[in-house]
Amino acid sequence: MNPLIITAALTGAEVGKDQQPALPITPEEIGEAAAECVAAGAAIVHLHARWPDGRPTQDAGVYREIIAAVRSRCDAIIQVSTGGAVGMTTEERMAPLALNPEMATLSMGSVNFGDEVFLNVPDDIETFAAAMRERGIRPELEIFDAGMLATANRWLAKGKLPANPHFDFVLGVPGGMPATPEALLYLKSQLPAGATWTVAGLGAAQLTMGTLGILLGGHVRVGFEDNIYFSKGVLASSNAQLVERVAGLAGTLGRPVASPAEARKLLHFA
Ligand code: KMH
Ligand code: ZN
């Protein structure tokens, strides 16, 4: 089977240290967490930035420090968020693209996000996509609901997104598609030719969706952005603990784990 690419979503925008004391928020903490995750089998780090008091930010200066802290410690593929946090402006969300990371997320539509709305109007999605195209940044297409994959397929047919796209199915957001085998299989059935995909299950579904992702030949995202627990009622001790578990499962199920260099090849980096 093809090697498994593990993405570590280290921080996110929603979880606080009050909920997960091991949440990395400073550049040094994020750099350390990234290195531990790569040692445990991760190839990509999905990055969000925080101010020192924990509030989410898309400030390019903070991202610059985070990226330097990661790069000084490991060879992970750096994927910045353009989702940021609910309520941020398009301009704010664009800021880390100025740093020319290898990858960035590109959400393909709007979705209710708990009691809020994660807004991604088509014009803004085009603006993000154009900035990534101009800078040679590989997008990861974030799919929270089936209509977003339909949109991606329409845009691909019109040449508005790069060939051989990479998708991330984020399942279990209250307002988005549920984290069920049926939902995942449906999304997989709608993928365009040449696509690669990752699955990120929220909460307890991180483990179930991850296992399915391994078995179905996809790739897997784990980490505190999506889930802070190791098992019911037991907090994970670190992001790396969650990476280590999925890498172990892959080994048990016969899938080798991709290094960052192998992941760059599998994801068609130039
Ligand atoms: N924090 C969510 C509202 C992304 O990173 O691109 C959006 C998010 C998606 O986390
Ligand atoms: Zn994110």
Class from secondary-structure proportions: alpha/beta
- Which strand order spans the largest sheet, edge to edge or round the barrel? 1-2-5-6-9-10-11-12
Shape field: globular
Bound small molecules, which ones?
(5S)-5-amino-3-OXO-hexanoic acid, zinc ion
End-to-end distance, in Å?
A: 23 Å
- On the 0 to 100 scale, the average pLDDT is 98
What does this 3D model show about the protein?
The protein is of the alpha/beta class and 270 residues long. Helices cover 36% and strands 20% of the residues. The protein has helices spanning 27-40, 60-71, 90-94, 122-135, 146-157, 181-189, 205-215, 239-252, 260-266; strands spanning 6-9, 44-47, 49-50, 56-57, 77-80, 103-107, 111-113, 116-118, 138-143, 166-171, 196-201, 219-222, 229-231, 234-235. The chain has an 8-stranded parallel barrel, surrounded by 8 helices. Strands 3-4 form a two-stranded antiparallel sheet. Helix 5 (146-157) links the parallel strand 9 (138-143) and strand 10. It starts with 5 loop residues before the first strand and ends with a helix. Bound molecules: (5S)-5-amino-3-OXO-hexanoic acid (KMH) and zinc ion (ZN). (5S)-5-amino-3-OXO-hexanoic acid is lined by residues 12-13, 81-83, 85-86, 105, 107, 113, 118, 142. Residues 12-13, 81-83, 85-86, 105, 107, 113, 118, 142 line the site of (5S)-5-amino-3-OXO-hexanoic acid (KMH).
Short description:
The protein is α/β, with parallel strands linked by helices and about 270 residues long. Helix content is about 35%, strand content about 20%.
